[in-house]
Write a structure and sequence with these properties.
By secondary structure, this protein is an all-alpha fold. The chain has 13 helices and four strands. It is globular, with a radius of gyration of 19 Å.
Length: 317
């Protein structure tokens, strides 16, 4: 047990360092190519920090364990929005642009509803089965390709930073690669050790997936958002979370369903309710309260909702 705790601490240290390097490198790329920090967070950072979720979900699908694949993504998206954005907003209010309110945040809701509609097509519409088929997976992956293409097209053309203030491209790329490597390696160490400890305590696969695996694989997002907040790059943090949530549903669950169809049998309505509430509360918070900002009040609300969901899971072990 002591060895597992040491591995967990080492993984956490790698995640913290990797997040700092990734934020610096990604911000430099945004400045170099005239892309907004939000778009860099939505694409490069969002997809990079979701790599642990992809590994866990694809392995779960290959082994025919839908509870691991689905629970990991559902849990990660709830963690991302309620816990990570909650903590980040408490540390430093994050700006929300009109583009975020009108397109990016609503798109997160639409994609979440698409997942629920496809996954519960028999319960909701009376045909098919409750789960993601390979055709559903192909549809999700196709939507992902269209969304990412649109994001890059709309994110270009930002004001360029003076050449003297730019980090050399090779150095920015190196920081991104090293940062992502540290995030993924550290995240894997954390997840492996935490899962080992949890299994020794005899908890279920679903609980491990929605709590420990989801929390562990969301550590890169947490570290990256906190690092971005400290560096006063709130748009990169927000883009990271929205991008990670979209990447988790469209590409990770889409790819996992292509590998092996995923049944929704092990996911409860409360789990799906927490998923859609986390998407909706981000939209309402962008309109209510402090204008154009996710502030400390929003952060406290997110953390309260997260605590409620975790309490439900623990009570119903």
């Amino acid at each position: 047990m002591i060895v597992q705790i040491l591995i967990l601490v080492a993984g956490l240290a790698l995640v913290v360092w990797g997040a700092d390097a990734l934020v610096d490198g990604a911000s430099a790329v945004a400045r170099r190519f005239g892309l907004s920090e939000f778009i860099i967070g939505l694409t490069i950072v969002g997809m990079g920090t979701s790599a642990p979720e992809m590994v866990v979900s694809f392995i779960g699908a290959a082994e025919g364990n839908a509870d691991i694949s689905l629970g990991n993504v559902v849990g990660s998206n709830v963690f991302n929005t309620l816990l990570i954005l909650g903590i980040t907003a408490l540390l430093l209010p994050m700006p929300v642009t009109p583009e975020n309110r009108k397109k990016d945040i609503p798109m997160n809701i639409v994609i979440t509803l698409l997942l629920i509609g496809l996954g519960l097509e028999h319960t909701l519409f009376g045909f098919g089965t409750d789960g993601l088929s390979r055709w559903d997976g192909l549809l999700l992956v196709a939507v992902f390709a269209l969304y990412i293409g649109r994001s890059f097209r709309q994110g270009a053309g930002q004001e360029e930073t003076p050449e003297a203030e730019k980090m050399p491209l090779w150095k920015a790329a190196l920081w991104i690669v090293l940062g992502l490597t540290a995030l993924i390696l550290g995240g894997n160490w954390f997840v492996d050790s935490a899962t080992h400890i949890a299994k020794a305590l005899g908890v279920s696969d679903k609980f491990i997936a929605i709590t420990i695996l989801a929390g562990g694989t969301s550590m890169p997002e947490l570290a990256t958002c906190v690092a971005a907040a400290v560096k006063k790059k709130g748009q990169l943090a927000l883009g990271n979370i929205i991008g990670s949530n979209i990447f988790n549903i469209l590409l990770i669950l889409g790819g996992a369903a292509i590998i092996h169809p995923l049944s929704f049998e092990g996911i409860t309505y409360v789990d799906l309710g927490a998923l859609i509430v986390s998407a909706l509360v981000l939209l309402t918070s962008s309109y209510v309260g402090k204008k154009n900002m996710l502030d400390k009040v929003d952060g406290a609300l997110f953390l309260l909702l997260f605590a409620g969901y975790m309490s439900y899971l623990i009570i119903n072990l």
